[in-house]
Amino acid sequence: KQWYQRRVRGVLNYFNTTNTSNLLSKMRLCGPKLSTCFFVLACWGTIMLLLLGIFFQTKSVMLLKDIGYDEERYESAAMSCFIAGGVYFVIGGLSYWQKVVNDRYSALEPETTTIMF
């Protein structure tokens, strides 16, 4: 039990810091450009897959070539699209969180001037 308490205390001390910049740098997983790219792709993927799932669930005529006449395959494809849309939604949430962390971190960084010749 003592090793567990030491481990928990160590983890809490790791994140218990008064320097906000240090804490935000520990939470950054990707940069601002990558998080923006993931966010845009996740939004597009979520909307597309949810619409495709709705079309599969309503047995759209346009998807008849892809699935055929089997009703069970329509339901399976619709469920797969909804699950994939949910995964894209979670990835979008994580990338939005990274965008916020990057924005806050960049606001705390001192301005540097670049001299270009």
Plain-language structure description:
The chain is mainly α and 117 residues long. The chain is 77% helix and 0% strand. It is built from five helices and no strands. The longest helix has 38 residues, at 71-108. The model has no long low-confidence stretch (mean pLDDT 79).
pLDDT averaged residue by residue: 79
Order of helices and strands: HHHHH
Structural class: mainly alpha
Biggest β-sheet: count, sense, barrel?
none
Helix segment tally: 5
- What is the count of β-strands? 0
Strand content: under 5%
The N- and C-terminal alpha carbons lie at a distance of 62 Å
* Radius of gyration from CA coordinates: 23 Å
Shape: elongated
What does the secondary structure layout of this molecule look like, with pairings?
Elements: H1 2-15, H2 20-27, H3 32-57, H4 64-67, H5 71-108
Helix pairs in contact: 2-5, 3-5
What's this entry about, in short?
By secondary structure, the chain is mainly alpha-helical.
Question: Features of this protein?
Answer:
117 residues, mainly alpha, 77% helix, 0% strand, elongated
